Amino acid sequence: MAKILAIESSCDETAVAITDEGRLLSNVVATQISVHEKFGGVMPEIASRLHCENITVCLTEALNEANLKLEDIDAFAVTRGPGLIGCLHVGLQAAKTLAMLYQKPLIPVHHLAGHIYANEYVGEFHFPLLCVVVSGGNTELVIMRDHMDFEIVGETKDDAVGECYDKVARVLGLPYPGGLPIDQHAKLGEHTYHLPVPTGEGKYDFSYSGLKTAVINLVNSLKMKGEAVNVDNMARSFQDVAISMVVNKSLAAAKDFNVKQVILAGGVSANSYLRAQMKEKLEGTGIELIIPPLWCTTDNAAMIAKVAERLYEKKVFAPLTLGVDPNWKIDHWQEF
After folding, report:
1. Per-residue pLDDT tens for 118-128?
2. Are 235 and 249 in contact (CB under 8 A)?
């Protein structure tokens, strides 16, 4: 084990964390939500510029909290992908510069692997396990038979579930990001609106484009007719369909692959309805459910450091010619 400084900048959070022998010494996050909420989504160019402004501040604060200097760090880890290309570049250039200046290893980390391994702050992994990765940019079912062994068995064929939440929230006049406000309004409403349930091409695949379009068209149709949209009921109707797809397909995969654990990962894992439904459906099945703490559901560097610890032991280091990959697949994490 070693002292690892990790950097995360894949979307709209600039984050730096430091671990020592597996202990989390600091975890600094600078969020940009207040800037992007006026646009109803992340503006990539603005996000990249803000990362440039925030990265040195986060680095300084993380080192101060850990009571360390850059010379004390044994390796520098960074999110290589997936994510927004401009945002990823800021973190990568910072990590490469530090690795070059201090002549220490550079560790490339897959963003989704980070979300998965954030669960190690809660409990120990027992294989085989199913990772339910649900976020603004990704919706995947991943089987793990050992550490850093990822097999994608299901994924979205169009929109991610988190992106769908954001678009539906915008058409309903709710703030960005849309996950929390829709979750809150859904608790106050009833399932009164009929919405389609996309199935996806494969047994474990997802499709959210049709559901998103159906909500948008229904809201616009009601407005054109002069009819009021019951936001609470629409949120409930939408969430019931969106989350049921995740739950049902996750349960099918968990049983078919005979897993010992199901792990939730990604921003949408903060959704209270998803958490409650997964607990209810898995109760009595003998399959353990691990839910990440809320601070781990949003992007942070502590999760990147957790993966980097294992890669450091395996001596998975990258050359300084490393580039970002906004479409990096988790089952190809060794290819860089």
Report:
1. 999 999 999 99
2. no
Neighbour count for residue 250 (Cβ, 10 Å):
24
Q: Which fold has domain 3-116+298-332?
A: Nucleotidyltransferase; domain 5 (3.30.420)
Facing residues of 109 across strands?
79
For 239-279, what is each residue's pLDDT tens digit?
999 999 999 999 999 999 999 999 999 999 999 999 999 99
Residue for token pair 């739950």? 247
User: What is the chain's length?
Assistant: 336
CA distance 333 to 133: 16
Interstrand relation of 106-110 and 75-81 (parallel, antiparallel or unpaired): parallel
pTM of the entire predicted model: 0.94
Residue 246: how many other CB atoms lie within 10 Å: 22
Every domain of the chain and the residues it spans:
3-116+298-332, 126-291
Q: Are 301 and 309 in contact (CB under 8 A)?
A: no
What residues contact residue 99 under an 8 Å CB cut-off, 6+ apart? 75, 76, 105, 106, 320
CATH of domain 126-291: 3.30.420.40
Which helix (H) or strand (E) segment holds residue 57: the answer is: helix 44-66
